[in-house]
Design brief:
The structure is a single chain. The protein has about 325 residues and is of the alpha/beta class. It has a single domain, classed as Alpha/Beta hydrolase fold, catalytic domain (Rossmann fold), CATH 3.40.50. Helix content is about 50%, strand content about 15%. The protein contains 11 helices and 8 strands. It has helices at about 1-35, 40-45, 55-60, 110-120, 145-160, 170-185, 200-210, 215-230, 240-245, 265-270, 290-320; strands at about 65-75, 80-85, 95-100, 120-125, 165-170, 185-195, 250-255, 280-285. It has an 8-stranded mixed β-sheet, sandwiched between helices. Helix 1 (about 1-35) packs across helix 8 (about 215-230), helix 5 packs across helix 6 (about 170-185) and helix 7 crosses helix 8 (about 215-230). The radius of gyration is 23 Å and the shape is globular. The protein starts with a helix and ends with a helix.
Length: about 325
């Protein structure tokens, strides 16, 4: 009888183990890939690292800066939400598209848009698809988002008569910015902070950071699955590939204490840029989330120098276009 009981326990253990293995395979195949790109997944909402910034705009605004909420219909019918903030000076130097990081939203740029307005720049803070008030379920890490930027520029030109466009992106937003700068040459200049060079590589790095190990065949499998679920080509999500055709002026920024996206990826992107008008700023002791805080006033003063240089170039180009040449 004891032998029968032991055999029964062994059988139960084997069956339990088999069930757990099957459940693990099913979770790995169907659920885990969604955690990578499904922004509105409720489980992700419980464990997300980036905190959405939500507040009453009317209560925060002092009324001195003119703002306008926009809704843009993108190439695939997805409705995108954006906030246009106008220059508070008599003239406008340029209009800058602002792109947030993953699982954040356009409200993160409220203070920055005020700063830009006070210095003569319009800005358009966009909720990327599946983020904030924009429609969508999945992030495609620039594959569809670069087309959204093109639609946004079309909208600004047609409905707001805004044409001198720059772009400023952080993290995921920086990856989108790089892809968009090659995809649409109407973007005249860019600022890119703390971004990756290859989607597959950074997912593998995140496994190492959060799980303590990495195995690229496994992470690549998950990335390929998330591409299948979200219906986008994961091999196209390579900002470094787009850098090879970017010839616009660009300022790239990265903190050297960034554990989430290592500075080596920022430097790799920078090395591939076709542009001769480029600069890399390394923020000492800054991590992924505090470049602005660590860089401080000196950082934003350097940003303004870059932005004003682009305004001067635009004026010179306008003058050259109307002055007859012998």
């Amino acid at each position: 009888m004891n032998k029968t009981i032991r055999l029964s326990k062994t059988k139960i253990i084997k069956i339990t183990f088999l069930i757990l293995v099957i459940l693990g395979i099913l979770l790995t195949h169907f659920f885990v890939p969604r955690l990578i790109s499904e922004i509105r997944n409720p489980v992700v909402g419980l464990i997300k690292r980036n905190k959405n910034i939500d507040f009453d705009i009317a209560a925060k605004d002092n009324g001195k800066i003119k703002r306008k909420d926009l809704t843009i219909s993108s190439f695939d019918g997805t409705k995108l939400s954006a906030r246009l903030t106008f220059s508070s000076l008599d003239s406008t130097k340029a209009t800058i598209i602002l792109l947030h990081g993953i699982r954040s939203n356009k409200n993160t740029f409220f203070d920055l848009s005020t700063f830009l307005a006070e210095n003569g720049f319009n800005s358009v803070a966009l909720d990327s698809r599946a983020h904030g008030e924009s429609e969508g379920q999945f992030c495609t890490f620039g594959v569809r988002e670069k087309k959204d930027i093109q639609e946004l520029i079309d909208y600004l030109a047609k409905n707001e008569n805004l044409n001198h466009i720059g772009i400023w992106g952080q993290s995921l937003g920086g990856a989108i910015a790089l892809q968009a700068m090659d995809y649409d040459k109407r973007i005249k200049f860019g600022i890119v902070e703390s971004t990756f060079s290859n989607f597959k590589t950074i997912v593998n790095d995140y496994f190492d950071l959060h799980a303590g190990f990495s195995f690229s065949p496994f992470s690549n499998y998950l990335v390929n699955r998330t591409g299948s679920i979200a219906e986008f080509d994961v091999n196209d999500a390579q900002p470094i590939k787009y850098c090879e055709s970017i010839d616009q002026p660009i300022l790239m920024v990265h903190g050297n204490a960034d554990e989430r996206i290592h500075i080596k990826y920022g430097k790799a992107n920078f090395s591939k840029l076709k542009s001769v008008d480029k600069e890399f700023i390394e923020i000492d002791a800054a991590n992924h989330s505090n470049v602005w805080k660590v860089g401080g006033d000196a950082y934003f003063e350097r940003i303004l120098v870059f932005l004003n240089e682009q305004q001067n170039k635009n004026l010179n180009n306008d003058i050259n276009s109307i002055v007859p040449h012998e």
